[in-house]
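Subject: Protein entry, chain in single-letter code together with its fold tokens

Category: Structural biology, sequence-to-fold work with a learned token vocabulary.

Notation: Tokens come from a learned vocabulary of local backbone shapes, not from coordinates.

Start of record: The labelled sequence and token lines come straight after this line.
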Amino acid sequence: MKNVPVDGLVEGNELTETPGYVAEDVERWVPEHHRNVYRSAFERDRARVLHSSALRRLGAKTQVMDPDTDDFIRTRLTHSLEVAQIGREVGRMLGCDPDVVDTACLAHDLGHPPFGHNGETALNELAADAGGFEGNAQTLRLLSRLEPKVIGHDGSSAGLNLTRASLDACCKYPWTLAEAPARADGRPNRKFGVYQDDQPVFEWIRRGAIAQDGSSLPAKCMEAQVMDLADDISYSVHDVEDAVFGGHIQLEDLLDPAKREEVFSKTQQWYLPHVSEVELEQALSRLEGLPQWVKYMSGTRSSMAAFKALTSKLIGRFAASAMEATRAQYGKDRPLVRYTAELIIPDSTVHEIAVLKGIATAFVMSVRDAQPHYENQREILSVLVEALLDEPKYLASSFAADMQELGTRDDDARLRLVIDQVASLTDRSAVALYKRITGNQWHHGDKPLW
């Protein structure tokens, strides 16, 4: 990658004024030329994601709990907005272009299907013959192919056609399923960021990706690392807030040794398999020692305000810890962008974030996943995939046109197309399409569909 500064650079009539970025960072898969230059290439990227239909659909997609169960809980959309706010500020303090980080944060969950991680698991099984399903790989597919905005000279869709820097910032897992590194506990890693047939654009995005620490693992750019941290912070803090406001737990319950043990067990099982219970106890005790820690939220305005003060404190604590450690490593002045640095997150912060995740896992997600209608959600998706393969009339117009072009010559491509369609549905529209196909409201035994 040429080290060409782009302060005020016009690349296809687009600008970027953030120090540290180079000409290749503002390139697009399909070259574009714009008459107006009042906004930067990265500002244009953010606007494209903000106005996308994929982002709007997140408003009716499950984050942790079903979006129709409570007016307070977060959806994928509100979660993404909160991640973007955290990531933008952290990125700006490190010298990243705020719009690149903002774009990645807004986009990071676009590929998630209906019914949250339950739906992701179901679609992965249903798409096994076509290379599986993964929400992050689906995000790249949406941004570079499925979301209609720019059409190339050969007639193929380039999706939103974001700049290289913004697309790379969205790559949370920059590898294919075959290349995925093993998990810390030795189990296979099912997280990956690109499907096989999206390799060409992925290789273009990753041009110049070099790890700073000499690691053999695929490097993540600084902006992607900031997005990942912002997601972890938001996920850990806000899921606990939703759990408390939803009546699933009070923080004083953690004084019960049995419940405390359950939190540590889930934290080790899901997030930190090699961290000892002693270290997790220390992490939770540090959080409980904060003056803002609220043991009991009664539902009064004053108690709710006190809990919001706690969430603000936790977000600031985690963000400041990473920013200070990173600046201590690389200095205070130079912009830390792309592949010039690694985000440093102290172990103490990693442990504290994970313990908060463990609280939500123990008292919300584990209980949620045992509920009967989560089995029904998987059956809904299975019926949809089978029906859309057999009856393309149920496909949305854009997918129907793609299916007609494919014909019957490629079963894997047809399955991938149907998976793309089903993954784009919201929780509500998936149920509505299921009812339309089956012609009834359907109950499975005594378990309601929805």
Summary: Strands lie at 443-444, 447-448. The first helix runs from residue 41 to 50. The chain is about 55% helix and 0% strand. Residues 1-11, 442-450 have pLDDT under 50 and may be disordered.
